[in-house]
Hints:
By secondary structure, the protein is of the alpha+beta class. It has 10 helices and 11 strands. It starts with a helix and ends with a helix.
Amino acid sequence: MLLWVPWALLALLLPTLLAPGEARHGGGLPAQNSSRPALLRLSDHLLADYKKGVRPVRDWRKPTTVSIDVIVYAILNVDEKNQVLTTYIWYRQFWTDEFLQWNPEDFDNITKLSIPTDSIWVPDILINEFVDVGKSPYIPYVYVRHDGEVQNYKPLQVVTACSLDIYNFPFDVQNCSLTFTSWLHTIQDINISLLRLPETVKSDRSVFMNQGEWELLGVLTQFQEFSIESSHHYAEMKFYVVIRRRPLFYAVSLLLPSIFLMVMDIVGFYLPPDSGERVSFKITLLLGYSVFLIIVSDTLPATAIGTPLIGVYFIVCMALLVISLAETILIVRLVHKQDLQRPVPAWLRHLVLERIALLLCLGEQSASRRPPATSQAAKMDDCSDMGNHCSHWAGPQDLEKTPRGRGSPPPPPREASLAMRGLLQELTSIRHFLEKRDESREVARDWLRVGSLLDRLLFRIYLLAVLAYSVTLVTLWSIWQYS
């Protein structure tokens, strides 16, 4: 009867003794009829003895290859003054964790599991151009496949430094790089590769928001190794984000008003040069352009290393307006009528009324020439001498002393002779006044002809300069826009 007692005790203790052995030999494989959910059992199985501070490889000589991918979602801001680019990207990382592997048949055929990011090893891959922490949402989980592949998906607001070239504004194209590299591990520990083909990454605009100021031209990729010291080599993957500004808004708000003001300045040359309205009109245009530059000064990008070409364009346009005003002042000064205005010099008459008129195909200007002032002066002197001679022979004493012939009319009374002499003096004065006025008018006409011809010549030179400047800018901007 007492022989069955040891066997009963052995039967009671046998399950307790065999439980640790099954756990050790089976790798912690749970029983199929366990009441715990498969996800909990798998999570406890993976993270029970996991050390997240150690790179997850069984052979330390084998590097961990991290495959990365970048998809540009939006261009949030381009700060030309501070040389900063703010983008929103979808970032993906893939690597193999050899300590996070299981057999799906032992856990209800589970092939993928989401676990907290803080519980596992994550590569220290950063962007070298980071200058500020963006407002990126925190994603607390990663996906782990049964073969150990870890999938880390997260959206990032990236604030990076970029060398922005604004010389071609608003037709500028910017090329900014995002350099992904391990901050600490060398290429012997962590290697970086591209998840997708470079051609696919370059042409992928599937999620890009295309309604903003900037247009995504493509994302170029480049892998390279660099070394700080001769024995330490690091792997890095560069993504070049190439964007182009849409110039329509700036062309309408900046270029068109400036073009309209320049056109009005050219039209102002058709005002008569002898009127003072042209000067006031040019001054009004110059004042309006100055106010326009003050308004658009905040719109133009500014950097410490250069000025955009459109800024040079505005400065040259203002310089042209100033030159046009100076030309108008010169012409108005030439054609202004003065009482003591000197006649046109012979060299200026020859140069303008003949040479320039022939150059401008205005041959009729040289035909109308005023007679020399010397001939008019001689005529006036002759007339004066004749008047004196007449007055000398027509004096009252001479009339009294002159013997009267037989049959001659009686001499006029003394009072009539004095009245006739006064009348002759008044007529002489009127004649001298009219001749002087005609002479001054003729001098004014000569200066008006000279001023008109010079005005036409300077207008054509000004017009050619404006056209050449406009064609040059349009050609440069066209080349840059379609390059």
